[in-house]
Amino acid sequence: MLWQLYKYNELSEDAVLKPGQVLYLQPKRRKADSKNKVYIVKKGDTMYLIAQKFGVKTKRLYRMNNMRFKDKVVAGQEINLRKRRRE
Q1: Cβ atoms of 37 and 84 closer than 8 Å
Q2: CATH number, domain with residue 33
Q3: Could you tell me the pTM of the whole model?
């Protein structure tokens, strides 16, 4: 169903899909697979793009990194993909 595509990819129903965009056909996971524990942010990355790249829920990614929703990431920053960052 179309609504599931939007939900699984954390998109609003008025979002415009672009060629080459990564889309999930199943719900995303709570954490990345075991080989990816940390990701180093590259120029142009956003939390949403990182979440899409590793199939992790965006809200969960923010929580694991003790960040507020909508906080920006910067190149070189470490993002935990599997467990919560200690403060």
Answers
A1: no
A2: 3.10.350.10
A3: 0.82
Can you give the residue range of the structural domain that contains 69?
A: 27-80
Nearest by Cα to 27 from 46, 53, 47, 6: 6
Q: Are 73 and 41 in contact (CB under 8 A)?
A: yes
Q: Give the span between the Cα atoms of 87 and 77, in whole angstroms.
A: 15
Angle at 11 between CA 6 and CA 15, to 5 degrees: 100
Kind and range of the H or E run holding 70: none
Using the 8-state DSSP alphabet, how is residue 14 labeled? T
Average pLDDT over residues 3-23: 91
Q: Considering the domain boundaries, does residue 71 fall inside one?
A: yes
